Amino acid sequence: MTVALERDILYPDSDGQPMADNTKQFRWIVLLKENLECLFADDPDVFVAGDLLWYPVEGHPEIRIAPDAMVVLGRPKGDRGSYRQWLEDNQPPQVVFEVLSPGNTTKEMTRKLKFYEHYKVEEYYIYDPDYNELTGLERVEGELRLIEAVENWTSPRLSIRFELTETELKVYYPDGRPFLSTIELARQAEAAQQRADQAQQEMILERQRAEQADQQAELAQQRAEQAELENARLRELLRQAGWSSGESAPN
Q1: Other CB atoms within 10 A of residue 179 CB
Q2: What does DSSP say about strands 83-84 and 133-140: parallel, antiparallel, or unpaired?
């Protein structure tokens, strides 16, 4: 009977709340989520999601939260309606991100902090784009503790670096490349494609020049061989006419 009841429990894929309250918050959520996807694009065992409901406890659909972005190391990529931890080898997200909007309250953010701390998130980052404030917390001895020098901080789990300038937050890949917007990524990809096309065109032209040079060399060789044959025939005719190599040819 208990098993049947467990199977009948609904875990909604939506909490009815909007992903973002304004365009600035939405832009930052997309920036973080999409670049984190790019960061782990070649690793099949890293799951990245944005605004996805996370249910940490089986049988309790009321215990849930939807981080603006989260990274789960050790779990396969793939579409999910929600992240149900008991179906994911009981692996909680190691890193979560929240982007503040004017609608976020202190009570709400305190609740989120307690949730992430209780359910074993290892790194928690909060960015307020309106006030350009970054807050980072790292799990130390079972608690999420404030990162004091977060203005130039490198994530232990993700190896991405945060740099808080006077005007905005900058985030960098482990190789130093900056996180870019979708438009910037598209333009960068287009520029890279143009460079690749140009390089390919130059290779084609170089190959054509090499082939032309080979053809000219072959033609010159043929002419030289033809001239040698003609000289050989001329020498043979002179020999047959009785002219020796020491005699002068008649005028």
Answers
A1: 20
A2: unpaired
* Residues 173 and 192 occupy one common structural domain: no
**DSSP conformation letters of 9-62:** ----S--S--S-SSHHHHHHHHHHHHHHHHHTTT-TTEEEESS--EE-STT-TT
Mean pLDDT confidence for 98-102 = 92
pLDDT at 110: 94
Q: 57 is in which domain, residue-wise? A: 2-180
> Tokens standing for 120?
């074993």
pLDDT tens-digit map of 105-144: 889 999 999 999 999 999 999 999 999 999 999 999 999 9
The pTM of this model reads 0.73
Looking up tokens 């290779």 gives: 203
State the virtual CA torsion across 76, 50, 184, 173 in degrees, nearest 10: -60
Domain CATH for 83: 3.90.1570.10
What pLDDT score does 3 carry? 43
| Residue carrying the six token digits 């990524």 | 185
Query: Domain count of the chain?
Result: 2
